[in-house]
Amino acid sequence: MSPTMNNTSCQRINFDFTSRFLPPVFILVFIVGLVANGWGLKSLLYNWKKLGIINVFVLNLGLADIVYLLTLPFLMVYYFMKSTWIFGDAFCKITRFCFNLNLYGSIGFLTCISVYRYLAIVHPMRVRGRLTVTHSVAISIMVWLLVSVQSLPDMFYTKTSENKTACYDTTHKTYVEDYLKYSLGWTLTGFCLPFLITLGCYGHVIVILCRRNTIDKVQKQRSLKLLFILIVLFSVCYIPYHVFKNLILWSRVLSKQQVCYEWFNEVYIASQISRGLVCLNSALNPLVYLHGNEDIRSQLRQLLQRARQMFRRPPPADSGSVPITELTDDV
User: What is the rounded distance in angstroms from the CA atom of residue 179 to the CA atom of residue 183?
Assistant: First the structure.
């Protein structure tokens, strides 16, 4: 498809799609994510003395989700007001920084969980007694520092428009060329490398689980379930976001050079959908809690059992009750 060298003949970008699509997604993620993460963190903290190595990473995963979820009400207001930011330039940068902390912190801690599972299954004798909670705490601190260092340059880019009404998740068009280079490097170090590490760890784990008959069946099932959860998180949340984030930046660079393609509008809509999908990680991450913590799973089973009993229990007899037919007639 040949490019068009005239902006006036470009297909109009449907910016209204963002204001219609993102707010409902944010509301859903905020409610589900806050309840699920709050419940999971409460259970982990309640059993602090039994906190294992892998649960330290799960705890930090939940904290990363909470940091982002607390910024969602401000983003809801922003998109409900047709992309009008009323909270100032500094808070715009803080909001975007929290999103990046959540995104790349989640990827980092999921990678740590994958490496730990790999070592525990493939090299159990070598790591027995050598990996402690202190090590996992130190590694978690390193992950937070690394993610912060990667995300810090993003705060030096302009995040608001000239009239201070827009709050860009990337930057103003003036600096879009430099931001594209930064984004590609960030994608490589913050996403691609952890993804390859996770893929390699679980690829080897599957091979070992299939070859060894001595490994407990329950352990095999738990490892395969965690692998499935990670595949869902990366496939649904992380991969589309990074692909379309860089594509939309590239399309903005081309538009600035007055080069237009018909696929610009489709890429924009796909990038906004991917932004909705990537924030779902804050609602899907608690699946790791359910997988890794038996106490939480038993609590969930009890809650579901109580709910079933409540619905199955017949209503108490009431001599003064009105028959259904009469209520219907009154209506």
Answer: 6
**CA–CA gap between residue 325 and residue 291 (Å, rounded):** 48
Amino acid at 86: I
pTM of the model: 0.83
Contacts of 304 (CB under 8 A, 6+ apart): none
Q: Domain count of the chain?
A: 1
What range defines the domain where residue 58 resides? 14-297
Tell me the pLDDT tens digit for each residue of 86-125. Answer: 999 999 999 999 999 999 999 999 999 889 888 888 887 7
pLDDT digit string, tens, across residues 168-195: 999 998 999 999 999 999 999 999 999 9
- Cβ neighbours for 308, distance < 8 A, ≥ 6 positions apart: none
Tokens (6 digits) for 276: 């909705």
Q: For residue range 271-314, what is the model confidence (pLDDT) as tens digits?
A: 999 999 999 999 888 877 666 555 555 665 665 566 666 666 55
Cα–Cα distances (Å) from 128 to 123, 125, 132, in that order, read 9, 5, 9
Q: What are phi and psi of 59, to 5 degrees?
A: -60, -45
Q: Does a structural domain hold residue 100?
A: yes
Closest to 226 measured CA to CA, from 210, 241, 212, 206 = 206
What is each CA distance from 308 to 263, 305, 314, in whole angstroms? 50, 5, 12
Contacts of 45-51 spanning 24+ positions with Cβ under 8 A: 47/293, 47/295, 51/133
Helix (H) / strand (E) element for 250: namely: helix 239-256
In the beta sheet, which residues pair with residue 167?
160
| List of residues 6+ apart from 31 with CB closer than 8 A | none
Position 313 in a domain: no
Spatial separation of the C-alpha atoms in residues 165 and 174, rounded to whole Å: 16
- Residue 326 forms part of a structural domain: no
Token pair in block for residue 128: 């027995």
